[in-house]
Amino acid sequence: MGRYIITGGTGLVGKKISKALYKNGDDVCLLSRRGGFEDEFYKYKWSVSKQEVDKKWLTETDTIIHLTGAGVADKKWTEAYKKEIYDSRILSTRLLFETLKNNTHSIKTIVAASAIGIYGNDVKEIADENYPVADTFLAKVCKDWEAEVNKFSELGIRVVIIRVGVVLSSNGGFIKEVSKPIKMFVGAALGNGKHLMSWIHIDDLCALFIKASKDSKMSGVYNAVAPNPISNKLITKKMAILLRKPLWLPNVPLFALKFLFGEMADMLVANQHISSKKILDAGFQFEFPDVDLALADIFTEPF
C-alpha cells in the first residue's frame, strides 16, 4: 500500500487520481489552501504565495503526485494571468523542494505533471521526449517547471515527469468547452481544422500517473498521449454526431480566435503529433487507444 500526498487534488485530474488510489487501498492526503477533512481525504494546509506548508505529512508519506497549476485555458492571457500560470507551477514546486531539503522526510518518489506544450504549437514531425523545446510562453513554463522538479533527484528521490496532452473528460476541459457551441448549433472547427491534437482519456491519464508512482523502473520524462492523434475538424465532427447536432458553420478563422483569445489562440490551433512510444515501451496499456472508443465512453451519459 502506498502513502500519497497530492497537490492539485481537487482539480479535474487530481480528484480522479485521489479516488482511484483510495479505492485501491492506498493512503491519500492532499495539500490544499484549506485544511481539515473533505470527503475521504485529509487536507494539509499550504500557501504557495506565502511559501508556507504544514509539515506533518513529511514522515507519513512516500510519494508526491504534483499537479498544482493555474489552468492555461481558464482565462485570457493577460500579463497578470500569465504570471499566475507561471508562478503557480514554479513556486509550488520550489516550496515542496525546499521543505523536503530542510526537513526529515520519508519521500521516495515524485510524479509531476508537465505538458506537451513544451514542444510548441507547430511540431514538424512526430515528437518524442527528446524533441527540442520551443520558444513559446507555455514551452518556457514547462521547461522551467520541469527544471524545478528535476531538483528532487538531488535528494535521492525518484523523479517522473508526465507531459500531459489534451485531456478528454465529460467533467471539464476540451470536451465540455467544444460541446457547448455544438449543442447551441454554432459548433465549428478551429482555424483550418487540419491541425493534429494529441489527446488522452482521463482514465488512461490517471492510470499512467498511478503506474509511474508504483513502477520503480520508470524515471524521467514521459508523453501522456494516446497512440492515435486526430485533427480538430474530425474530432469536432465526431462530437457533433454523438450529440446529434449539425455542423453548418464555416471554420472559425485564426484572426477571429486571436481577437477573442489573444495570445492563447495559437495554443488552440496547435499542430502536435506527439509520440506515445516511451510509455508503451514501459508496459503501459491504454484502455482507450482510439478516439472513437474514448468518445463512446465519454458520451454514454449526458453532460
Please outline what is shown here.
This protein is of the alpha/beta class and 303 residues long. It is 36% helix and 18% strand.
CATH topology term: Rossmann fold
Helix content: 25-40%
Strand content: 15-25%
* Total domain modules: 1
Number of helices: 10
Task: Give the overall shape.
Answer: globular
What is the mean pLDDT? 94
SSE string: EHEEEEEHEHEEHEEHEEHHHHH
CATH architectural category: 3-Layer(aba) Sandwich
How many beta-strand runs?
Answer: 13
Structural class of the helix and strand makeup? Answer: alpha/beta
The CATH superfamily appears as: NAD(P)-binding Rossmann-like Domain
Q: Just give the CATH class.
A: Alpha Beta
Sequence stretches where pLDDT stays below 50 over 5 or more residues: none
Cα radius of gyration in angstroms: 19 Å
> What about the largest sheet?
9 strands, mixed
**What gap, in angstroms, lies between the N and C termini?**
34 Å
Question: Can you describe what's shown?
Answer:
- With 303 residues, this protein is an alpha/beta fold.
- It has a single domain (3-298), classed as 3-Layer(aba) Sandwich (Rossmann fold), CATH 3.40.50.
- It contains 10 helices and 13 strands.
- The strands form 3 sheets. Strands 1, 2, 3, 4, 5, 6, 7, 8 and 12 form a 9-stranded mixed beta sheet that branches.
- The longest helix has 23 residues, at 79-101.
- It is globular and about 60 Å long.
- The mean pLDDT is 94.
